[in-house]
Amino acid sequence: MLRENLQKALKESMLAKDTQRVSAVRLIIAGMKEKDVDARGKGQKEASEADLMAMMQTMIKQRRDSIEMYLKGNRQDLADKEQAEINVIETFLPKQMNEEEMLAAVKVVVAETGASSMKDMGKIMGVLKTKYAGQMDMGKVSGIIKSLF
Questions:
Q1: Residues 14 and 69 in one domain
Q2: How many separate domains does the chain show?
Q3: Mean pLDDT of 10-31
Q4: For residues 76-92, b (16+ Cβ closer than 10 Å) or e, as one string?
Q5: Which of 32, 57, 61, 149 lies at 20 to 30 Å from 141 by C-alpha?
Q6: Looking at residues 135-142, what average pLDDT do you find?
């Protein structure tokens, strides 16, 4: 589904001559192809939607870091370009969970997995990444998990 949406968005933005959107969608597709190559190396046909969602989350995080650096360097033009890319990438991700929703989801997964200490953090994160792919900021989630133990 995500793959079809990306191809459709690419065609539509090319027809609309929306060069900024074309560029951002092409970046996502390039990342997707890279993930597919990695997946084939692991014996899978292609990368899962969860892998692609995680990749797009990483792309957003990288752009937010860049925006911070551009603003420190008084380069508002470059920061605006990065923000425009974030806006395009976010259109392909499911609705993001807020802090309360993430906390509730973490508590459910902790109960499901029987986690009892920080040693179980990897297990918890693995379940969350699978169940809530693309819906959570995993950096914030790790802070939530740490606050519970």
A1: yes
A2: 2
A3: 94
A4: eeebebbeebbebbeeb
A5: 32
A6: 82
